[in-house]
Write a structure and sequence with these properties.
Length: 217
């Protein structure tokens, strides 16, 4: 899953990006509204974390212009004690909001919920054959035994699981699993697919020649 964070406070931006990467998300960042809008329109992110008070273009304007192009889930970061802001945010098309200062676990939980909702997934544990993917806990088990995946392997499994039954193209996977700072994407993807197959069985991820990959639902 690939997230864009638009935040002009350098420490908060860095801290959030690091925490989300530790959770296995691919993370892009923007330090002002203009750059944020450009990236949010350009890339099909799984979610955008958007601060309201931003230089160049404020969060409201970013959200308004983004909504003309994309339905990407947006989590708005609003100032304390500004309930008018929260109402305005939801009216403008934000999917959720969080009041600063916030707890990191709460931000992570809301992001997971947003991503799940946008995939129209109501359950947090999805079973595929003998494999169970727990999206809330970001954990995978097989025959009820935990399977240890790296953060990126988990992201690959999660993305394919949320799109189970569909063929997911390599291009989609590059877009959702890797961020603007990752390189040699092609090699990485093959390595991750191969490692997941070693851990969950070769047939867990099917290759569709010339098209991409698929997990049967
Ligand atoms: Ca700000």
């Amino acid at each position: 899953m690939r997230i864009l964070i638009v935040e002009d406070e350098p420490d908060l931006l860095r801290g959030l990006a690091r925490s989300l990467r530790e959770e296995g998300y691919a993370v892009d960042t923007a330090a002002d509204g203009e750059d944020g809008l450009f990236k949010a329109v350009e890339v099909n992110y799984d979610a955008v974390v958007l601060d309201v008070m931003l230089p160049r273009l404020d969060g409201w304007e970013v959200l308004r212009r983004l909504r003309e192009k994309r339905k990407t889930p947006v989590l708005l970061l609003t100032a304390r004690d500004r309930s008018a802001d929260r109402v305005r945010g939801l009216d403008t098309g934000a999917d959720d909001y969080l009041v600063k200062p916030f707890d990191l676990p709460e931000l992570l939980a809301r992001l997971r919920a947003l991503i799940r909702r946008s995939a129209s997934e109501v359950r947090s544990v999805i079973e595929i054959g003998d494999v169970a993917v727990d999206i809330a806990a970001r954990a995978v088990s097989q025959k009820r035994k935990p399977v240890v995946l790296t953060a990126r392997e988990y992201s690959l499994v999660e993305f394919l699981t949320l799109h189970r039954g569909e063929v997911v193209t390599r291009t989609q996977l590059y877009e959702h699993l890797f961020d603007e700072n990752d390189d040699s994407l092609s090699n990485l993807l093959d390595v991750h697919v191969s490692n997941v197959r070693k851990k969950l069985g070769h047939d867990f991820i099917a290759t569709r020649r010339g098209h991409g990959y698929c997990i049967e639902g």
